[in-house]
Write a structure and sequence with these properties.
This protein is an alpha+beta fold. Helices cover 23% and strands 27% of the residues. The strands form six sheets. A five-stranded antiparallel β-sheet has the order 6-7-12-10-11. Strands 1-2-5-3 form a four-stranded mixed β-sheet. Bound molecules: uridine-diphosphate-2(N-acetylglucosaminyl) butyric acid.
Length: 339
C-alpha cells in the first residue's frame, strides 16, 4: 500500500544515524502501485528525488529537499524450479539477509557468502554487493525497474547491468532514470562452497565443514567480529572502495611495503589494493575526534560516535583521502552514496 509521509525524520532510516529529514517519503510495495501513483501526479518526479532502500550505504550531508521513494514490498515468488536450480522473483523491500536466510533454509547455493550484509534486495544490484569472493551479480538474472521517463516496466538482463566491483549501470547510465522494484535471481541446488577468501575456510572447518548453514554462520561470525553493529554505532559498512590500480603502481608499493595485500581485479591488467590496509597503515585506525571516528577493528569503516552530522563524517573522510594520497599516491573513492 502506498504511504506518503511529509517531513519524515530519517534518523532511524539511515544506518549512520544522521539526524536529518526528507520533505517527503513515499513507501510503495510493488511496481504497479508506484507506476499508478506517478502517473496520477507528475509533480512527484519533477523536483529532486531519490530511492532510499535500507539506508545502509548512504550518508546524508543535510536534510533531503525532495521526495524519497522507499520500497517495502517483501514478497518472494518461485518462478521456476528443477533438479538443478531455483529461480525467484524478490521484491525490492526485502531485507537482503532475510533472502540469504531463505536460500540457506531451502538448501540453494549462491548467496551464503553474502550473509549479514545490511541493506535491501533492491539496493543489492546498485552497488553489486560483495563479500568473501562472491558478488550478488553472479546470482542475478535480471533487475526489474520502473523507467521514470516512460513510466513503463523495464527489465534489465544481468548481462546488461554492467556489474563490476561495487559497480553497475544503476550508478551510471541509469542513475536517476529508474526505480528498482524487484530482482530476479537464480540459485543452484548443487553444492559450491567458495571458501578461498581470508579466514572463511578455517572458520567453516571449525564449525564442522562446508554446509550452507556452517558457511553462513562462519561469515556472520567473521563479520560481527570486525564490523560494528549499526544499531549500536552508526556506520555504513565500508566507507571507501578498495582502489583498483595498475600493476606497476602496485608493484612499486609492494617493494616499499612487502606485507601490503594485493587482490585480483575484474580487469586482468589491474589489481585491487585494500583501502582498509592503507588507512590503517596511515595511522587512522581507531581515530576519533569525539563525533566521527574510524572503527577500531576495521579501518575501512567510519563511525558516528554520537551526534555527528553528515558534514562531520565527510570532513573526516576527506582528511583520510588526502592523507592516503600523500602517503601512498593512491586515491580512495567513497563507496557510500553521499546525499
Ligand atoms: N586490513 C588492515 N587493516 C584494517 C582493515 C583491513 O590491515 O583496518 C587488511 C586486512 O588484514 C586484509 C585486507 O586489508 O589483509 C582486506 O581486509 P578485509 O578482508 O577485512 O576486507 P576489506 O577489503 O577491508 C572488503 C569489503 C567488505 C567485505 C570484505 C570481505 C570493500 C570496500 N569492502 O573489505 O564489504 O565484507 O571485503 O569480503 O570491498 C562493505 O562493502 O560494506 C563491506 C563490509
Amino acid at each position: 500500500m502506498i504511504k506518503v509521509y511529509e517531513n519524515r525524520k530519517l534518523r532511524d532510516m539511515n544506518s549512520f544515524g544522521i539526524d536529518v529529514q526528507a520533505d517527503r517519503l513515499i513507501e510503495f510495495d510493488s511496481h504497479d502501485e508506484l507506476r499508478d501513483l506517478l502517473a496520477s501526479d507528475s509533480s512527484l518526479l519533477a523536483g529532486r528525488w531519490a530511492v532510499l532502500g535500507g539506508g545502509n550505504n548512504i550518508l546524508f550531508s543535510d536534510d533531503f529537499h525532495g521526495t524519497l521513494f522507499h520500497p517495502v514490498g517483501k514478497k518472494i515468488t518461485i518462478t521456476h524450479e528443477d533438479d538443478d536450480s531455483i529461480e525467484i522473483h524478490a521484491e525490492a523491500g526485502i531485507e537482503w539477509d532475510n533472502l540469504v536466510d531463505w536460500c540457506v533454509g531451502r538448501e540453494v547455493w549462491g548467496a551464503e557468502n553474502l550473509s549479514l550484509i545490511p541493506g535491501s534486495v533492491g539496493a543489492a544490484p546498485v552497488q553489486n554487493i560483495g563479500a568473501y569472493g562472491t558478488e550478488v551479480g553472479q546470482s542475478i538474472r535480471s533487475v526489474e525497474t520502473l523507467c521514470t521517463d516512460s513510466l513503463t516496466k523495464m527489465t534489465i538482463a544481468a548481462a546488461h547491468c554492467s556489474f563490476g566491483y561495487r559497480e553497475s549501470i544503476f550508478k551510471h547510465a541509469l542513475r536517476g532514470k529508474t526505480i528498482i522494484t524487484a530482482v530476479n535471481f537464480s540459485f543452484s541446488k548443487h553444492p559450491a562452497p567458495k571458501l578461498e577468501y581470508g579466514d572463511l575456510e578455517a572458520e567453516t572447518k571449525r564449525l564442522g565443514g562446508p554446509s550452507l548453514q556452517n558457511i553462513r554462520q562462519a561469515v556472520i561470525h567473521i563479520r560481527t567480529g570486525k564490523l560494528p553493529d549499526p544499531k549500536v554505532t552508526g556506520n555504513a559498512g565500508s566507507f571507501f572502495k578498495n582502489p583498483v590500480v595498475g600493476r606497476d603502481v602496485a608493484s612499486s608499493l609492494k617493494n616499499r611495503y612487502p606485507d601490503m595485500p594485493v587482490y585480483p581485479a575484474h580487469d586482468p591488467e589491474k589489481v585491487k589494493l585494500a583501502a582498509g590496509w592503507l588507512i590503517d597503515r596511515a595511522g587512522w585506525k581507531g581515530f576519533s575526534n569525539g563525533k566521527a571516528g574510524v572503527h577500531q577493528q576495521q579501518a575501512l569503516v567510519l563511525v558516528n560516535l554520537g551526534n555527528a552530522t553528515g558534514a562531520d563524517i565527510l570532513a573526516l573522510a576527506h582528511d583520510i583521502q588526502l592523507d592516503v594520497v600523500e602517503k601512498f599516491g593512491v586515491r580512495i573513492d567513497t563507496e557510500v552514496n553521499i546525499f
